[in-house]
Write a structure and sequence with these properties.
By secondary structure, the chain is mostly helical. The protein is about 80% helix and about 0% strand.
Amino acid sequence: MEFNQESILKALSLMSSWEILASILGIAYILLLTKESLWAWVFGFFSTLIYTILFWEGALVSSSLLNFYYMLMAFYGFYSWNRGTEDDKLKISSYKLSNHLEAITTGILFTLIIGYLSSNYTDAKFAYMDSFVMVFSIIATWMVTQKILENWIYWIIVDLVAIVLYWNSGYLATVVLFMVYITLGSFGYFKWRKEFNDHN
């Protein structure tokens, strides 16, 4: 499969209306996250609902389960960001190095376990890569619900791996979408870092 303007346009033309809608909702979700808007979680819920179904039909088991997790976390994220009074709303914070080492070590361990199980006991494609995207997306999503600054860095790495996964799986239009996600993730990181620095 070649990655050029013609192949991208062809992939975009083959996108189902559901995939297009999920993509638009996904972009809106990230843009609203950068603004720390509660509406982000509403858009995120409906985007991931659609992707849960699409990836299940495409035999990307881990990605489908991951999007189901996103749906549940949309409810928790809304609650987490909205609890408390205006003065003690959740603020952007930063992880210590020890927190990152724990998250990365745990993520790699679960990636290997889930990848092995998926590879040997399901029909999952690209099991280890799919598992990496799933596990570290779970970690990054939790970080978003807690407004951890570095969540954006985790997402950029996850999205890079996801691009390779979805390219190999034939989801070319989704590859383009994840390139947009990386750009938005970079913007989100610098915007959150500025706010974090302004209040610390």
